């Protein structure tokens, strides 16, 4: 079923909103249900329930589409629309009753992300983007902040779940920290990317993200004028994702590349 990006976006906002309300109502008293790649990589009952809710609703409204979800993997559809879903990005924040967590839903057509919604229930924020049509937060158009020099930049980052990867990320951070205004570790990649789109951080980088962590939020950032790429200018995946307005992107890129930020460890 062909669909315009705006139609896919409306559905993304709807399903992400529904899952966000479900997660919000159940945040108190939530516990760890399971662990994944390491003991620090946790899953709650709500990650699973929210993903089921989103998947069922998407496939009910658009049978034939396929869904790739963080918790349940991918299924195969009969058309070119695929949904990329992170039911709760920032699960550790969610578990601790903190505010920075998001429901992230992106729609791909023939492999390109054309629509993305990131709902941050505890902030009351709904970030939206349709390809070529701009990005918004709660309906207000988003423009990234003007680039600042690296030594004036507030740089967000995040860490993976394996101890070896964390040790490598700490080494890189040790070299980055003295060269920037400050560092933030918010705990939800989608929220970090949307913060750059909104000018609440100047840049964001992280190694080892999964597609569902960034698919929707990278479109929001790009449509707001932020450059989002891998360190070698390939699409970001397990390589390091870097997001910043243009000049700052170059400066941070060169620093991270000189540190071998995506190659050691
Ligand atoms: C995680 C968060 C975190 C980032 C990790 C992600 P999850 O996503 O986005 O900020 O540092 O790399 O895996 O597991 O909470 O969906």
TrEMBL record:
Positions annotated to bind Mg(2+) 1: 70, 86, 89, 213
InterPro entries, per the entry: IMPase (IPR033942), Inositol_monoP_metal-BS (IPR020583), Inositol_monophosphatase-like (IPR000760)
Keywords: Hydrolase, Magnesium, Metal-binding
Keyword presence, Metal-binding: yes
Cofactor: Mg(2+)
UniProt binding sites for Mg(2+) 2: 88
Superkingdom, natural source: Bacteria
Molecular function as annotated in GO: histidinol-phosphatase activity; inositol monophosphate 1-phosphatase activity; metal ion binding
The enzyme's E.C. designation: 3.1.3.25
Reaction it catalyzes: a myo-inositol phosphate + H2O = myo-inositol + phosphate; L-histidinol phosphate + H2O = L-histidinol + phosphate
KW Heme (keyword) present: no
UniProt GO BP: inositol metabolic process; signal transduction
Pfam families: Inositol_P
Pathway where this protein functions: Amino-acid biosynthesis; L-histidine biosynthesis; L-histidine from 5-phospho-alpha-D-ribose 1-diphosphate: step 8/9
Functional summary from the UniProt entry: Catalyzes the dephosphorylation of histidinol-phosphate to histidinol, the direct precursor of histidine.
Family: Belongs to the inositol monophosphatase superfamily.
Name the UniProt record assigns to this protein: Inositol-1-monophosphatase
Native source species: Haloactinospora alba
